[in-house]
Amino acid sequence: MKDKIKQLLDEISVFTTESKEELDQFRIKYLSKKGLIPSLFGDFKNVEPELRKEIGQALNDLKNKAQDKLSSLTEILDSNIQESSGDLDLSLPVNFEELGTRHPLSIVRNKIIEIFARLGYNVSEGPEIEDDFHNFTALNFPADHPARDMQDTFFIEKNPDIALRTHTSSVQVRVMQSQKPPIRTISPGRVFRNEAISARAHCIFHQVEGLYINKNVSFADLKQTLLYFAREFFGEHTQIRLRPSYFPFTEPSAEMDISCNICGGKGCNICKHSGWVEILGCGMVDPNVLENCGIDSKEYTGFAFGMGIERIAMLKYQINDIRLFFENDKRFLKQFVSSI
Ligand code: PHE
User: Fold this and answer.
1) What is the pTM of this model?
2) Mean pLDDT in the chain?
3) Which residues lie with the beta carbon below 6 Å from any ligand 1 atom?
4) What is the CATH number of the domain that holds 267?
């Protein structure tokens, strides 16, 4: 028994291998249930009592040596495998995951919200599928009035009372119905109009509309608010001009131009050499609208304005085709850097 132990100890201490298969055979030969070492343990019961202590120790020692050998060789082989698997070149630069970027429309929307938040405006949202009352009637669009054609509408089939909203003024009707003045709110959101898709127009686009209702709100307040917005958004030298216009829900109504932010007003292709570009519609809320929404028009006045986010973004970033916003081409989308 002693000799057998000595022989196995020698075999084990010189054993080495670079192959996993050979190492597994080593384990089976010496350490598995029917392997040589367990079978020596099995023979231990026949050892004479006076030799038991010595042989017992030698056997335990043998078993420990075999296990140590197995685990140290396993470790070496595993690390070799890792190094040789694939072409691991530690000198290569780290492969960073590509970071996503904010969509330019989100960047512009967030910036607009941030500017008006400074003036105390909160954000209100409402449904994209609207009823006639909120999208038209409450806003002073008479039934069968040609004003309804200004905004070619997608109606829900079989129900002329339900449509995709054509502007987010509908959200402001909901705000006026449910809140008491003073109201300062802006309503960003997606709107829908039945228009042919081209470089300039899309049937789906985004708006931010604003509403301020309080006692003694005047056209001068409107003008100053919009001047502040234009300068914060397009730069401190921006000029504005208001041209008379028509909307059913405001009286008087105006369209606002800014001095062309590309040429600074000197004249270029973007402003068609006029020095001005139109950016929004606005006006004093028509008293009928206030009354339709449950607000006393003798006590309160207000102003409203609305702009297309795509248009603002196109001017800001000099984008010449509105369709680019909806094509999800990463080469386009990753050019815009968000500060918020
Ligand atoms: N609702 C108008 C539109 O969609 C914009 C607007 C809002 C005009 C408020 C005046 C006042 O075109």
Assistant:
1) 0.72
2) 91
3) 167, 169, 209, 247, 250, 281-283, 304-306
4) 3.30.930.10
